[in-house]
Amino acid sequence: MRLIQFVKRNMVLTLVFVILLILAFVFDRPEAIYRGYINILQSPSVLISDYILIGGLGATLFNAATVLMFNLVMIKKLNISMSGPVFAGILTIAGFSFFGKNIFNTLPIYLGIYLFSKAQKLEFRSFIIVTLFSTGISPLVSFLIFGTSWPLYFGIPAGIIAGVIAGFILPALSAHTMRFHRGYNLYNIGFALGILSMLFAVIFHSLNIDLNVGGPTSEQYHIELVWISLGLSALFMIIGLVLDRKLLLRYPALMKQSGRLVSDFVKDFGKPLAFFNVGVMGLLSVGVLLVLGLKLNGPVMGGILTVMGFGAFGKHPRNSLPVIFGAWLGVVITNYSFDSVGMVTALLFVTAVAPISGRYGIIIGVIAGFLHILITPLAYVFQGGFDLYNNGFAAGFVAALMIPFLEMIIKDKKEEQHE
């Protein structure tokens, strides 16, 4: 009964915070966590910066817990109710706190969005979804402070100002990028951030600033991360089943959804079924990685948590498996390799284009996944590593390439009414 009441009070993500915080001190001593956390805060944090390698597992879990709790408190203060997009945003933040986000480099972005809301004379809470996903560009702040060799008296204000500017621009930009991919890229804000990052990368390149500051990854805690992922997945599934023992009868209806933005599974199917699907997507992610013999590290853990988050906001096994298969096929038959952590994470983040599969079927989904793998490395080159949601940037182009053609040859009255 206590678990049920806890969940009904929208505290399930608080439970995730508690778990991450406890695990941090299970894996490391307080002094090691402190030292590692300082290293994380002082990291340039661009793609791909594995915080587990930089600060250790304990410090990384502590970083994820603190960033998660900050955003949960913000949601509470703004009186925001739990929805699919909010849930996805929160869990994505937790995931990317394993490789690029920390409390220091996120705040300037939030400040920029807050100033935009004031300039537009609108409530800050009306931009909550943009705010939650905005920190995909947070490495911009850390890079200018810690990745340029500039003195701190110059780097700190430069990083903060750049972050505020990015946050100020983002709400208007993200509203327009939806038209580019027509809602078939679940990481819409990632696409908008890619455009912003490309602008900053061009400016830095013109100033001869070296952007190649990403580092290697660590698979030292592969087993521990597998168990954490499986444990969190099982937790969400159990919570769903405890709250609604008949939810499996309605699960096929959820999997019939295309997932196209905006697909709020919490609103449309209720928290129990949405939580259950979150857990299923976690198991699916870990299962795919283990079957292929791939190791977990900070970025891959971030991918798993992000896929889980979007289990409440557009993703389910039926629309995700075809694009994952297409991505795997793209790596196997090209000169790409899973030795690259970018390809491993793309295997998970390719689910950004899951709505294409959900709407147009398995074969089209496989093609979308294949194209995503081809485009993702090029997207990284353009945006310079400042957009942590690089796969969202790539997914926007995949959708923009495929959807006009598909809508031209596949007429659907229901789809036309959706416009």
Describe the structure.
With about 425 residues, the chain is an all-alpha fold. The protein has two domains: about 1-205, no CATH class; about 220-405, no CATH class. About 70% of the residues lie in helices and about 0% in strands. The protein is built from 22 helices and no strands. The protein has helices spanning about 1-10, 10-25, 30-40, 50-55, 55-75, 85-95, 105-120, 130-135, 140-145, 150-180, 190-205, 220-245, 250-255, 265-270, 270-290, 300-310, 315-330, 340-350, 355-360, 360-385, 390-410, 415-419. Helix 10 crosses helix 11 (about 190-205). It is globular and about 60 Å long.
Short description, anyone?
With 419 residues, the protein is an all-alpha fold. It is built from 22 helices and no strands.
Provide the domain count: 2
Dominant shape? globular
Name the structural class: mainly alpha
Low-confidence stretches: 413-419
> Averaged pLDDT, please?
90
Radius of gyration: 20 Å
| Beta-strand proportion | under 5%
Helical stretch count? 22
Number of strands: 0
N-C termini distance:
44 Å
Secondary-structure element series: HHHHHHHHHHHHHHHHHHHHHH
How helix-rich are the residues, as a percent range?
over 70%
Major sheet size, sense and barrel closure? none
Oligomeric state of shown chains:
single chain
Present the secondary structure layout:
Blueprint: H1 2-8, H2 12-27, H3 30-41, H4 51-55, H5 57-77, H6 84-96, H7 103-119, H8 128-134, H9 139-146, H10 152-181, H11 188-206, H12 222-243, H13 251-255, H14 265-269, H15 271-291, H16 298-309, H17 317-332, H18 341-349, H19 354-360, H20 362-383, H21 390-409, H22 413-418
Helix pairs in contact: 2-5, 3-5, 5-6, 6-8, 6-16, 7-9, 7-10, 9-10, 10-11, 11-21, 12-15, 15-16, 16-18, 17-18, 17-19, 17-20, 18-20, 19-20, 20-21
